[in-house]
UniProtKB/TrEMBL annotation:
This is TetR family transcriptional regulator. GO terms for molecular function: DNA binding. PROSITE patterns: HTH_TETR_2 (PS50977). SUPFAM superfamilies: Homeodomain-like (SSF46689), Tetracyclin repressor-like, C-terminal domain (SSF48498). Pfam families: TetR_C_33 (PF13305).
Amino acid sequence: MPKSTTITKEMIVETAFEMVRKEGFTVLSARNIAKQIGCSTQPIYCCYKTMDELKAEVCKKALSHLQNVMLGYQKTGNVFLDLGLGYVRMAHTEPALFKAIYIDNITNVKLTDIFPENQEIVELMKNNEEYRQLSDKEIKNSIAKAWMLVHGIASLVAVGMFAYDEDKIIEILE
């Protein structure tokens, strides 16, 4: 008798995450995940009591992934500008995931939950010569203002209303 494959939580989350990356949260169901993995829905419901529980884990993974894409982008040497460019780049490279998290607001977050109040971002800014003299409050205000512009550009890029042209985006953000 062949050995049965063990379906782990990690396999389920990774499969669900990849599905959301490609098509957004609308495709996320126990049946669709099971089909991708090649199993019944039983292992999914053994690992997760509800689909909302699984969606919460996928959201957490998605937010971490998107933040890593954004924070890891370095183009101009200006930390503030590079953060904005990273955010727009993320919308360009991960449009379905970007729309699910930041446009459809599947995670039900507020603006301040994602970015301006993030102490890691504030510390990153304070390490830059250009922003070192500003207080935390001034940095957060600058981030909030710029965030609104960047989010608008990124949203337009994600839905295909604005062609991704990094030089043009730099020109707008400067």
